Amino acid sequence: MNPYSLLAFLQVQASNLPERKIANMFRPLASPGESEKQVALLTFAITGAIFVVVGGLIVYTIARFRSRPGDDLRQEPPQVYGSNQIEVAWTIIPILIVFVLIGVTARVVAGVQNASPPKTTTHVTVIGHQWWWEVQYPDYGITTANEVHIPFSLDGAQATYFMLQSMDVAHSFWVPQLSGKTDVIPNRDNYLWMNPKAAGYYYGNCAEYCGTQHANMQIRLVAEPPEDFKKWTLNQQTKANEASEAAQDKAVFLSLSCVNCHMVQGTTAIGKFGPDLTHLMSRREIGGGVIENNRKNLRAWVNDPQGIKPGCLMPSLKLTDRELDQVVAYLETLK
User: What pLDDT digit, counting tens, does each position of 295-319 carry?
Assistant: First the structure.
């Protein structure tokens, strides 16, 4: 077994990818994040040195020129007027510091944004909605939601290029350990790329206030070995796996207004306003990352989405218990 396969096996054995819930931007695991970390450390070092120098001078001045016993309190202190040398120094030095920071930042930004795509590149289109993410893979004909699957490689040769769009208001796409924030603006295409160097579930969020459920507009990015990513794409390209015994449950689902907002490929459900449900049960979470995807939570979500995510655009259909059970039973077949 070659080193790549061995490490990939250790990291994702039994398809149990490690979860990186603490999104520490100072522990980057992709090239853009590493570049941005270096700029941040340089900035902290320079501003920290300025803080120490200025703070030290203030403390020295307080200690050196403090009032002492025996001083004549009526005597005015000696008046010291400006020094041309000092004035020039504290004007030129800050200007030089600002230009250094601007130059380094511009170089890193240009290096990240103008980087040439490697030979192995995955293209993903992410569309922000209030309050969930639509994820499209134009090269594979796949549409899913909230959970972004991309390949990774130890040497960073597997890169993913994102086109970012918004369906409604301004959002911001941010997975801290992989790349910086990129705004998602209506009527404008923005771009970013990342090349994860370790497998796992990476947690991110919308970083631009976009409404009442902004904090619950979460991102789950799954970086996996190329062979596992290929298996995932093949599964997503198939029609929903519908059990024959679920025909009656399917008929109930298709008779409801769910089909006006959601799509299930291979059926008459062709809605575009809500997440594509074709492989709903392949996702770990629902509601834009608010709750775990299991039968209990799925039933509660379908029954009263406003009770779980107030303000979301999914209404309660006021289903009977029987209808609710049938809809949930059908959704559970969509794997």
Answer: 999 999 999 999 889 988 898 888 8
